[in-house]
Amino acid sequence: xxxxxxKYETNSSDxxxxxxxxxxxxxxxxxxxxxxxQAAVLAVQFGEGHSWSINFTKTNETYxxxxxxxxxxxxxxxxxxxxxxxxxxxxxxxDTMRPVQLNNVFVCHNTDFLEAENVTQIFWNVTxxxxxxxxxxxxxxxRCRADTPTSAPTVPPTIANVTTPSTTTxxxxxxxxxxxxxxxxxxxxxxxxxxxxxxxxxxxxxxxxSQDKPLLINVNPKTTTADGACGNTTATLKLNDGNSTLxxxxxxxxxxxxxxxxxxxxxxxxxxxxRLNGSVISNADNNNFSEWDAFLGSSYMCRxxxxxxxxxxxxxxxxxxxxxxxxxxxxxxxTAQECSLDDDSILIPIVxxxxxAGLIAIIVVAYIIGRRKSxxxxxxx
Length: 381
Prior knowledge:
Elements: E1 2-9, E2 15-21, E3 26-27, E4 40-46, E5 50-58, E6 62-73, E7 88-94, E8 100-101, E9 104-108, E10 112-116, E11 119-123, E12 126-128, E13 140-143, E14 162-163, E15 187-193, E16 196-209, E17 215-218, E18 224-229, E19 234-241, E20 245-255, E21 261-273, E22 280-286, E23 291-295, E24 299-302, E25 306-311, E26 314-324, E27 336-338, H1 347-380
């Protein structure tokens, strides 16, 4: 089974997310069995001009996936009703499949995924054997990483690491849903460009999903991996928690003057998948943020809880945030600009000002009362 999540540009120059599923009518033209000198190819065509293929190579003892080619057609108005670019779009990605012993069947029941450009490819219930010998299917199985006992539990995100209200409570908006007893653990993430660290992030993440039953999901840093890309003016950080929670952050640089540059968080996208069947629980994106703003070359810090509204159905809560997406030096955070929530010094002038205002009000009231009494005394005399 396969499903594709695709981010595409619309006629209004904004971006939308589309979900492309296999249709009931699938052909496999162009598939070949392969040989000692020729790669095996599994090719499928479906829907209105969409296709997917994988090349397999082998050695004397093993076979494995080499690369995957996926073509989607934005002229398919049922999937891309307002696409700015019309026609086929092709992406090629290296397959991450481990080598499988010849005559073994590769099996992967749980969801696995590949990301490339603006496409997330999701697979589950996979059974395949390339280079079948003598027309006989193998009896031994080789399992994928997602099926191994060391991977995250094979349960949907609606159960794993989730706190939900009792069935008798109403379904509130994300802002009113109950929170887990404990805040999420803080994770440390980094990206490298060559052998140099180019992005550093420390953060605890919690997702608040509004559905029939509100879900609160703590992202587990122990099972979360980091990927992404660094650039001079744009950087992306992608977090994957057990192939069921996919989170992407996009940072950009802006010029506030001729000599001053700042960075900020521009976009966050979140995809929640059901590990059992690959279905999409939630797919949210917001590319209009102007958060986590700091001078280029510095870092941004906010120890207190912050809330990012991804869309009307999903919020992200951050804890113990420390981020530097550009100009990291010596694998260390630069001087941090702290958020206003952390700056307790702001409270001091507020409290002092309020106290002085109250004292002045008391003095004025006392003065007025004293004047009235004095005036009353003069009238009696």
